[in-house]
Specification:
about 130 residues; GMP Synthetase, Chain A, domain 3; three-stranded mixed β-sheet; 6 helices
Length: about 130
């Protein structure tokens, strides 16, 4: 899926993100197995034809994150129809729910950068430039 960065795509993505966030407040309607899980929608990326949305999620509490995303992917048609009642679009995009691991990756990069050996290398390279 090619990601669209036009203002229209960004606007549709934000609207989907906002509507899914309110929909997930009543998560038991979608699937009783998701009861007790709090979902945070971090981003909704639209395809260039605006017919596919990749939705990044951070589940908090309850079952495992992968399990929660799996339940959502099982219920995509139901979620899509509930979303269509909240948003008016010519075509309701197909939804792809993805676990958002970007925060974990950034933590890993930060911990690598704070390593003593890396700090030493960074200080040596900045002294060479002076």
């Amino acid at each position: 899926m090619r990601i669209c960065l036009s203002p229209r795509c960004l606007k549709v993505g934000e609207e989907i993100k906002r509507s899914l966030a309110t929909l997930f407040l009543e998560i038991a309607i979608i699937d009783p197995r998701l009861e007790g899980i709090s979902l945070t929608v971090t981003e909704a990326q639209m395809s260039t034809d605006v017919k596919t949305a990749r939705v990044f999620l951070l589940p908090l509490g309850g079952k495992s994150a992968e399990e929660a995303v799996g339940y959502l992917n099982e219920n995509k048609p139901k979620i899509r129809s509930l979303l269509a009642k909240k948003i008016y679009l010519k075509y309701m995009p197909h939804l792809i729910f993805v676990l958002d691991d970007r925060f974990h990756k950034s933590d890993r990069i930060n911990s690598m950068l704070s390593n003593d050996k890396v700090q030493k290398d960074l200080s040596v390279s900045s002294e060479d430039e002076s």
